[in-house]
């Protein structure tokens, strides 16, 4: 399926490059209010939560590496 192909591509990137993963699937799992009635597109609340996840992930990526 496309999800398995997507995970394979991400895994290969993790092996080659310095990457961070923002796990939107986990972050949104118990939050149906993040989605519109079609369960695909984000609501205003979902957009905010997604943006906060991106900011947190980028901030984490910018931290200096542990010695």
Could you please describe the fold and organization of this structure?
With 67 residues, the protein is mostly helical. It has one domain (19-67). Helices cover 58% and strands 0% of the residues. The protein contains 3 helices and no strands. It has helices at 2-16, 24-28, 44-62. The longest helix has 19 residues, at 44-62. The chain is flat. The N and C termini lie far apart (40 Å). The model has no long low-confidence stretch (mean pLDDT 86).
Total beta strands: 0
What is the CA-based Rg, rounded?
Answer: 14 Å
Largest sheet: none
Low-confidence sequence ranges: none
How many independent structural domains? 1
Tally of contiguous helical segments = 3
What structural category do the secondary elements indicate?
Answer: mainly alpha
Shape: flat
State the separation between the terminal residues, measured CA to CA.
40 Å
Strand content: under 5%
Helix/strand order: HHH
* Helicity level: 55-70%
Mean pLDDT: 86
